[in-house]
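Subgroup meeting minutes
Present: P.N., E.W., G.H.
Scribe: E.W.

1. P.N. recapped why we're keeping a running log of single-chain structure predictions: easier to compare across weeks, and new members can see raw inputs and outputs side by side.
2. G.H. added today's entry (89 aa).
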Amino acid sequence: MTMGKWKFTGYMLLTSVLMSAFMLASGMFRYAFSLAAVLLGIQFFKLEEEKAPRIWFVVLVLIFAMIFPVIYIMVAFMNGWQIDPEYLK
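Output recorded in log:
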């Protein structure tokens, strides 16, 4: 059974945000975000039986996981927030 588009979007965006947090965090929080993203992905794969939505899920998670840190850094620059120079490499 195929899940609805809103549920798919929710899983995809939440997993993307967790992957982005994994890229931006340091220390033990980094691994917590990674584990949460993996568990959420496993849950999605249990719910979705068809191959095409699974492929789209992985592709969109990777795309949005690369976009969200860029958005965060742009917002941080505009607001004068402290940014770790390692993120700018």
